[in-house]
């Protein structure tokens, strides 16, 4: 490596990660005087700190690499060896931690911790964010057995280890810890979301395979609540769970070292802690001559970072016409637009016009748009129809679209203007489109596929906040109704906050003095009232309803408690703001009072009869609590069997198999029973299905009537089976064809009605391995079959019923009164 000279360098590069090394390599090739300053005693601390033996991917595949440093997929050690060898041609100064940068273009003064001073005409910051990790903020988050990186996974033996974080780093750490079975580590990986939207597909598939083999446990929709010396309390959708933890590896991402960067005079895109510096398309900051590249610019992929290092040196050297390596890909993306070659102009147009993109940097826009599509719609052209299958998000860059809210009256439409989004309901729930939408004027729309949208929401907080606000506003309009417009909600929206409530956690406590109103966005709630020292079940409240209006209307204490049946999301609205809205909208107030009157009547009845309320009410409460534990709190349709009426004929299973190509989706005997009420193993058709959370081909859909079903595009990966908490999905091959029913009756040919026994299938196959790939199968409520659910139709005694939980619980509650 070349020694540093006492000269003013053309360029000083700070940080020897992939971006910095690539910049230094290009500067050396062009003969520019340069110095690469690295604070550690080794090059590329980014790669150096990866776990030993880590396989590094060279994605995206379609992107051309520009760099004097070679890079292709391989092990951490191989890549470092090649880069260290190539670094002999560049001027590197190790153990040179920069503590201050002053000046501007042509006259920068850089000071190091060791006391050295370097002068440079240009400065490139490639320091990344790795040295500023996000830390755990729960009680016990400072325990000694918590670490934020993993060097050598083989150094740990016979430990209970929790890996927190579902990005590539967390997944690779978890997989590394189980790579050698003889080490006998027991690993849990936790993800606070249902899907792994921030990780590469190959990593997610490897993770799912490990879980399927029983080598690792995956906990989704989970967060650490408190850490102790040998265990941790974890909140899950079913409540708090205590997990053994000899070690916790928290891969929670990182944030830009903002204090240091701002001390250099650099401005940021926003005040958000995770915001990135404001950069020009040439990577220049608000300080002339000071550039930012790599992860600090918002580009975490190695190939992107290396291209940036190359491009910024070319720009400094005078090649200002050089286009980014992804330019041809974006030109192809914009081919439907006028002058598609004007990539930078179109990117800025989309970024500024579409509200949810406002917080993205131009460089983030380039990466994000490669996963999206751009459409131009003429007036009156349909974007999508009601009941279409689709879960992508649409953004309006120019023009406006009309939402046809009444399929029977084409004149009833609502306009969504320029800058807004639509399709978020399908994105969040996976349901089919709930309305037809067409272009009102000539419109430019950006379509963001589900996976890309979820990645965007997970990595850019400003986008998540914007989508949440839009979804909240539209949910309020839908729930409250009464002709309310967006403008009517402006005041109440300023008070709206989104909160997560864990299973069995109380949202409202009886006799409390607060008066806020809550909209249930995800999950469900149960209402209870204390009578004679016992909590009596009053009502089940599903997503799409509101609670808390009684205390708000009467300015009194809470008359009942409300707790989450499953992990839920609620929108909190301040009581005073809600009251102001009711005062301005008499029709809305009347509808709320009507609902309030029914609840008040129930409370009055209970108070008047509390002395004789015991037996029946206690039994109903116990029954309701039992059903909540069986998952009916998040169900939209469930199969229940009355054991008093059931005669065990199994007609329900036989009918199910006959309706579904010989494979029954129902196990009558399995499941649990309370009193005479049996919940068999059959799909609940959850409001927010767990099985949908990570289906690679998006084969799991929801039909217009609410049925959750699996279509023929299933690839048999088994993700849905692993995600379902109720064990109602099975992986099965198509059953062999059976002789006709007449042949069975007349000649005894074949196994008869129902699912064929394994012995018959084996005999039919004549010793050969079963043919055809396995696919996921589950109850689809006999979608498309005349007459409805076969299991219910085939029950001779009426023991089997399919109901929504609110229908069943309300009917049962009426017997109490």
Task: Please tag this protein with its features.
about 800 residues; 24 helices; seven-stranded mixed sheet; 4 iron, 4 sulfur cluster binding; Oxidoreductase; globular; single chain; FAD/NAD(P)-binding domain; cNMP-bd_dom_sf; 4Fe4S_Fe-S-bd; Jelly Rolls
What would you say this structure looks like, in words?
By secondary structure, the chain is α+β, with helices and mostly antiparallel strands. It folds into five domains: 8-130 and 256-324, FAD/NAD(P)-binding domain; 146-250, 3-Layer(bba) Sandwich (FAD/NAD(P)-binding domain); 331-480, Jelly Rolls; 489-611, Jelly Rolls (Sandwich), CATH 2.60.120; 625-734 and 772-814, Alpha-Beta Plaits. It is built from 24 helices and 41 strands. The strands form eleven sheets. Strands 1, 2, 5, 6, 7, 8 and 17 form a seven-stranded mixed sheet that branches. It has a five-stranded parallel sheet with strand order 9-16-10-11-12, with helices on one face. Strands 18-25-20-23 form a four-stranded antiparallel sheet. A hairpin with a 2-residue loop joins strand 6 and strand 7. Helix 9 packs across helix 10, helix 16 crosses helix 17 (586-608) and helix 18 runs antiparallel to helix 24 (805-814). The longest helix is centred in the C-terminal third of the chain and has 23 residues, at 586-608. Residues 637-669, 706-734, 773-806 form the 4Fe-4S ferredoxin-type domain. It comes from Algimonas arctica. One of its GO terms (molecular function) is metal ion binding. Keywords: 4Fe-4S, Electron transport, Iron, Iron-sulfur, Metal-binding, Transport. This is Oxidoreductase.
């Amino acid at each position: 490596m070349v020694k540093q000279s006492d000269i003013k360098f053309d360029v000083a590069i700070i940080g020897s990660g992939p971006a910095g090394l690539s910049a230094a390599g290009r500067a050396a090739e062009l003969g520019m005087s340069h110095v690469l300053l690295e604070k550690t005693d080794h090059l590329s601390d980014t790669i150096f700190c990866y776990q030993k033996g880590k396989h590094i991917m060279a994605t995206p595949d379609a992107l051309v690499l520009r760099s004097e440093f070679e890079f292709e997929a391989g092990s951490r050690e191989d890549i470092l060896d090649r880069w260290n060898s190539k670094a002999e041609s560049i001027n590197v100064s190790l153990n040179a931690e920069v503590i201050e940068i002053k000046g501007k273009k042509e006259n920068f003064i850089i000071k190091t911790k060791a006391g050295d001073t370097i002068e440079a005409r240009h400065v490139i910051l490639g320091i990344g964010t790795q040295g500023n990790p996000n830390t755990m903020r729960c009680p016990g988050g400072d325990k000694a057995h918590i670490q934020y990186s993993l060097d050598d996974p083989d150094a740990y033996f016979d430990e209970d280890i929790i890996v927190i974080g579902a990005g590539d780093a967390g997944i690779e750490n978890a997989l590394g810890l189980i790579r050698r079975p003889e080490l006998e580590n027991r690993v849990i990986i936790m993800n606070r979301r249902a899907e792994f939207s921030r990780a590469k597909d190959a990593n997610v598939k490897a993770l799912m395979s490990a879980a399927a083999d029983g080598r690792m446990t995956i906990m989704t929709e989970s967060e650490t609540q408190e850490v102790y010396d040998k265990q941790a309390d974890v909140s899950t959708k079913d409540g708090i769970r205590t997990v053994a933890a000899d070690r916790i590896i928290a891969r929670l991402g990182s944030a830009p070292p903002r204090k240091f960067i701002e001390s250099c005079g650099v401005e940021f895109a926003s005040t958000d802690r995770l915001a990135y510096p404001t950069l020009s398309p040439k990577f220049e900051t608000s300080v002339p001559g000071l550039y930012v590249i790599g992860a600090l610019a918002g580009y975490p992929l190695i190939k992107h970072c290396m291209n940036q290092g190359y491009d910024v040196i070319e720009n400094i050297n005078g090649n200002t016409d050089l286009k980014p390596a992804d330019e041809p890909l974006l030109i192809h993306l914009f081919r439907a637009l006028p002058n598609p070659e004007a990539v930078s102009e179109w990117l800025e147009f989309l970024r500024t016009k579409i509200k949810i993109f406002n917080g993205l940097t131009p460089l983030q826009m380039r990466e994000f748009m490669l996963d999206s599509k751009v459409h131009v719609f003429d007036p009156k052209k349909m974007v999508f129809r009601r009941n279409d299958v689709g879960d992508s998000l649409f953004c309006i860059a120019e023009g406006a679209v009309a939402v046809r809210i009444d399929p029977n009256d084409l004149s009833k439409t609502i306009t969504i203007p320029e800058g807004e989004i639509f399709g978020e309901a399908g994105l969040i729930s996976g349901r089919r489109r709930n309305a037809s939408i067409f272009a009102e004027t000539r419109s430019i729309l950006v379509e963001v596929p589900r996976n890309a949208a979820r990645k965007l929401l997970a990595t850019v907080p400003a986008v998540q906040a914007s989508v949440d606000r839009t979804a909240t506003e539209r949910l309020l309009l839908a729930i409250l109704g009464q002709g309310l417009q967006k403008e009517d909600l402006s005041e109440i929206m300023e008070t709206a906050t989104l909160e997560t409530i864990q299973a069995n956690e109380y949202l409202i406590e009886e006799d409390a003095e607060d008066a806020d109103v809550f909209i249930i966005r995800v999950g469900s709630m149960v209402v209870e009232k204390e009578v004679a020292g016992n909590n009596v079940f009053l009502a089940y409240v599903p997503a799409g309803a509101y609670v808390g209006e009684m205390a708000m209307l009467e300015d009194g204490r809470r008359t009942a408690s409300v707790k989450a049946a499953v992990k839920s999301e609620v929108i909190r609205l301040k009581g005073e703001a809600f009251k102001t809205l009711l005062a301005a909208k008499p029709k809305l107030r009347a509808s709320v009072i009507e609902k309030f009157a029914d609840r008040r009547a129930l409370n009055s009845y209970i108070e008047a009869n509390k002395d004789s309320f015991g037996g029946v009410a206690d039994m109903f409460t116990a029954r309701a609590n039992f059903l909540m534990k069986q998952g009916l709190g998040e169900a939209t349709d469930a199969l229940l069997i009355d054991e008093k009426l059931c005669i065990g004929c199994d007609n329900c299973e036989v009918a199910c198999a006959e309706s579904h190509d010989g494979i029954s989706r129902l196990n009558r005997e399995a499941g649990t029973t309370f009193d005479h009420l049996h919940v068999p193993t059959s799909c609940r058709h959850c409001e927010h299905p767990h099985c949908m959370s990570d289906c690679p081909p998006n084969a799991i859909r929801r039909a217009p009537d609410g049925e959750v079903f699996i279509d023929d595009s299933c690839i048999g990966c088994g993700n849905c089976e692993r995600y379902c908490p109720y064990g109602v999905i099975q992986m099965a091959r198509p059953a062999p064809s059976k002789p006709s029913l007449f042949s069975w009756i007349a000649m005894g040919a074949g196994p008869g009605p129902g699912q064929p026994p394994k012995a018959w299938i084996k005999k039919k196959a004549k010793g050969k391995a079963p043919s055809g790939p396995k696919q996921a199968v589950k109850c689809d409520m006999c979608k498309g079959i005349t007459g409805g659910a076969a299991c219910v139709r085939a029950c001779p005694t009426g023991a089997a019923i399919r109901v929504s939980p609110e229908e069943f619980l309300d009917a049962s509650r009426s017997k109490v009164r």
